[in-house]
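Exercise 7b. Backbone tokens:
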């Protein structure tokens, strides 16, 4: 495959408060019917100067960078040639070879009801009451959760960000939600190559958050149970603390409904204030996502 480049004309020039912009038009002829837009763009860039690509400074204005090479088939020509528009300007082009509007956001919100089972905490410990016994309730919670998906277009996206934030909670106020109520359910990225840009590469990134504004994502439950801690052989050499059934004062049989426990895992006196136990299921980190609001 052979590509021949011909300079056509200098296009628009503009002086702005942030710098100058330049445009140049080229025509490219190919000896094959479909050389590929990317190959056409590369041919023009190498015609300008070998190794020229997105982010390369203008030859007479180092503050103006190559923004993109727009490749279009010339529909009016019968020779199968292409017209290429090379643009230089004050953009955010980097060595990632892309130019996208990273301020644009697509936001989608959906609500769903979920029966959430409680799981082990972030240290791998199961839920227990103050007596060290399993909790009395079935450890399920019915929650209404809003799933918020925010999609942006980024010139660069490190995979490490997805690993860093997935399955973490916000330790700061995030999008108006108090700490501990927003779970980062995942960060999905898709690399996109736009054939109209020379080596045009950017990422479509979706940040997915599950928001439980009422309960949050910590495991909070009453310190109650069917058994309590009891010290036997108190004061003797073989004194020890064991877990025993709580006996109903009326029937003399083990209770069938859970009762409140105190902080020491013993049956709480009548009228005592309930004790709530909070376990953290997910680690908390500051939610700072550039451009996500």
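Sequence design result:
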């Amino acid at each position: 495959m052979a590509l021949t480049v011909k300079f056509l004309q200098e296009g628009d020039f503009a002086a702005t408060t942030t710098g100058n912009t330049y445009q140049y038009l080229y025509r490219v002829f190919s000896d094959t019917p479909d050389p590929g837009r990317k190959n056409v763009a590369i041919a023009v860039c190498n015609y300008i100067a070998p190794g020229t690509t997105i982010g390369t400074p203008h030859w007479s204005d180092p503050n103006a960078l190559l923004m993109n090479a727009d490749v279009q088939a010339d529909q009016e020509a019968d020779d199968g040639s292409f017209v290429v528009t090379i643009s230089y300007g004050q953009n955010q082009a980097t060595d990632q070879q892309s130019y996208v509007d990273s301020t644009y956001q697509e936001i989608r919100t959906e609500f769903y009801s979920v029966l959430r089972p409680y799981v082990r905490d972030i240290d791998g410990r199961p839920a227990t009451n103050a007596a060290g016994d399993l909790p009395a309730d079935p450890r399920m919670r019915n929650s209404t959760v809003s799933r918020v998906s925010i999609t942006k277009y980024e010139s660069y996206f490190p995979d490490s960000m997805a690993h860093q934030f997935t399955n973490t909670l916000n330790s700061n106020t995030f999008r108006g939600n108090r700490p501990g109520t927003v779970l980062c359910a995942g960060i999905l990225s898709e690399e996109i190559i736009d054939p109209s840009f020379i080596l045009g590469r950017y990422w479509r990134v979706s940040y997915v958050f599950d928001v439980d504004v009422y309960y949050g994502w910590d495991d909070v439950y009453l310190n109650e149970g069917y058994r309590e801690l009891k010290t036997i052989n108190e004061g003797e050499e073989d004194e020890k603390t064991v877990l025993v059934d709580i006996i109903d004062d009326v029937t003399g049989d083990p209770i069938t409904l859970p009762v409140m426990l105190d902080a020491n895992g013993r049956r709480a006196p009548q009228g005592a204030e309930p004790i709530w136990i909070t376990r953290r299921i997910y680690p908390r980190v500051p939610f700072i996502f550039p451009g996500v609001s």
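Instructor comment: The mean pLDDT is 81. Residues 112 and 145 are 6 Å apart (CA to CA).
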